[in-house]
């Protein structure tokens, strides 16, 4: 089949603008431009009947709404009354349960606090006893030190025996410190220290017989 007729038809369609067959807005006919629409005449009997029907409809509608509202409120009040009764019973039951639990916990807490208080008292008592024992030991130690010092009063240097102590120190034997202490703690005495005699320089050996000349 030749494509020439199709091409010719396409070119013709491109140059020709189509008119819509079913427009959305139909233009007003030219012969009706000067015509003015008159309001529809109202029938008085029909108008009075329509108003009466409208008033009756509104009255019946409001009556039905009020009836529904009354029934709903009545059911709500009945439910609230029933729930109040239930809540009162439940509240009393919970109050009794709470009071019982409070009494039990009070007894348990009292026992626990008594045990804690007893433990604290015992701990403080033990600490007080330890402190008193330490103070007694310290007092005994101080007394022993005082007794030791009292026993050494004869060896102390005072104003009365100062001259005698000085004479005793001056006339005391010389202490030889030439010793060492081995690993076992024993004292090992040594010999007397070697006397380091000063080195004598032989001046005669250092004197040359003839002085060095400049040519030698």
Automatic annotation (TrEMBL):
GO cellular component terms attached to this protein's record: mitochondrial small ribosomal subunit
Matches recorded under InterPro entries: Ribosomal_mS26
Lineage per the UniProt record: Eukaryota, Metazoa, Spiralia, Lophotrochozoa, Platyhelminthes
Alphabetically ordered keywords of this record: Mitochondrion, Ribonucleoprotein, Ribosomal protein, Transit peptide
UniProt name for this protein: Small ribosomal subunit protein mS26
Nucleotidyltransferase in keyword set: no
Family note: Belongs to the mitochondrion-specific ribosomal protein mS26 family.
Pfam families cross-referenced by the UniProt entry: MRP-S26 (PF14943)
Subcellular location(s) of the protein: Mitochondrion
